[in-house]
Amino acid sequence: MRRPGFRNVWADAPQAVGPDNFYDSTVEQYALQPLEVLSLRQMLEFGKDAIYDKAKVLKSARHAQRELPKRLARRLMDLQFLPHIFVKNPHIKRVYDAYLHAFDTLRSLPPACTPEDNARLTDILQRLVDEHAPMLDALASGLRESSSKPFVGPKLPNLDAFFDSMLRSRISRRVIAEQHIHLAQRRPGFIGVIATDFSLREAVDHAAQRTRQVCTETYGFSAEVVCTGNLRASIPYIPIHIDYMLFELLKNAMRAVVEAHRGRRGQPPPPVVVRICDAPSSVTLRISDQGGGIPEADIERVWSYGYTTADASLRSDSGGSGAQPASFGSTMTQLPRPLTSETAHQIRSIASGAQMVAPSAGASGPWRMGGLGFGLPLSRLYARYFGGDLQLVSMPGYGVDAFLTLQHLEGDWHEPLAEHQSAPFEPEPHTLNAYP
Ligand SMILES: Nc1ncnc2c1ncn2[C@@H]1O[C@H](COP(=O)(O)OP(=O)(O)OP(=O)(O)O)[C@@H](O)[C@H]1O
């Protein structure tokens, strides 16, 4: 019985349902299941004739249905283990709720057995991919808000390992979802979202053009980007991944150069030089700048999530001018769209989908010049995801060389492998396994 003026908090509390209930261990059960690891090579081999093979598409659908809930469950568990004060941050809570909703939605679907089941799953996957685009921003904002609190901030544990698994898993889930969404679409030069012959020079040119544009909007001038080396090199890769990494690295180099040369208006700033080095098993892009380098004492910290020396006015959410994608999500949302065989055109059209603005339009575009401190660690995750790497060599007082290495998968990826028809995504020794 309720007394007037007395609120029974227990009776009024919303009843937790589904796996959010404290006593429900559904999330844990899924998180404990082993993952089926996939590789770029396997995805290419499996997907190359999928447009003619409905059974393959359904197999891929069931793979996505099996894999995504397990991967979401692991991240939900990670979030549950974090300090209460961090998980209760509204941005982080938003991520938790979105993941829980996606987990519940996907695990409740019956296994895709017909083209209609697949069509419904594909719609749901596309919706989730779109809805989750701002989650990266939410994570960054949650980290920034929590760590800037005077009492709580210093007491928070180091969250780099948490962000690594969170974002690596996010990359893998988006690759699984988007590869399936685009698997049955005919696009010359593409297998799903993977460009089979992606020109690195065109990728550099495109990222350079965008970087110069945002730099000019922010600082009033920019440095030239010179591309040298093997200008014909190409690799099979997911264009959005390369574009993200190149844009982040060029942006860092450009900011350092322009800030170092700001006082010398009469003199043009030294160019940022990108050298493409093609080797049988990998391609390395060296991005060299003369922006003064990173002080020795800070060189390790640049890999920490949230570490930045950029002025807050450069940050995407500051309302100031500048250039990092307005949200990380905007990069992620726009770039996985289906592409055509002409890579430059593809990336350009994707970027225009992201409302890229002309320099004259002022600083209102969605790309910002930095300030969240996610660019380097996230680019390294992208590079490592398919077996590559990202390293920095800083020469304090002079500049930085960033070495971005990407694995070549050409050679035997045309070879039809019978075992992939029965177990398309099973781990295979000696392939470049994505991290689970
Ligand atoms: N080429 C470079 N020259 C000098 N300092 C650099 C260079 N690259 C990175 N840094 C330093 O590393 C820091 C972290 O870089 P990171 O790309 O992770 O984040 P950011 O550029 O500050 O912000 P955002 O993630 O929004 O792009 C930078 O703020 C800068 O201090």
UniProtKB/TrEMBL annotation:
Q: What is its EC number?
A: 2.7.11.-
The subcellular location is: Mitochondrion matrix
Record-annotated Histidine kinase/HSP90-like ATPase domain positions: 237-410
* One of the record's GO molecular function terms: ATP binding
Looking at the record, which segments are called Disordered?
314-344
Which GO BP terms, alphabetically? regulation of glucose metabolic process
Compositional bias, Polar residues, is annotated for: 327-344
Q: Which SUPFAM superfamilies match?
A: alpha-ketoacid dehydrogenase kinase, N-terminal domain, ATPase domain of HSP90 chaperone/DNA topoisomerase II/histidine kinase
Q: Which InterPro entries match?
A: AK/P_DHK_N_sf, BCDHK/PDK_N, BCKD/PDK, HATPase_C_sf, HATPase_dom, Sig_transdc_His_kin-like_C
Predominant location: mitochondrion
The terms describing its cellular component in GO are:
mitochondrial matrix
Note the superkingdom of the native organism.
Eukaryota
Mind listing the UniProt keywords for this protein, alphabetically?
A: ATP-binding, Kinase, Mitochondrion, Nucleotide-binding, Phosphoprotein, Transferase, Transit peptide
- Belongs to which family? Belongs to the PDK/BCKDK protein kinase family.
- This one is known as Protein-serine/threonine kinase
What taxonomic ancestry is recorded? Eukaryota, Viridiplantae, Chlorophyta, core chlorophytes, Trebouxiophyceae
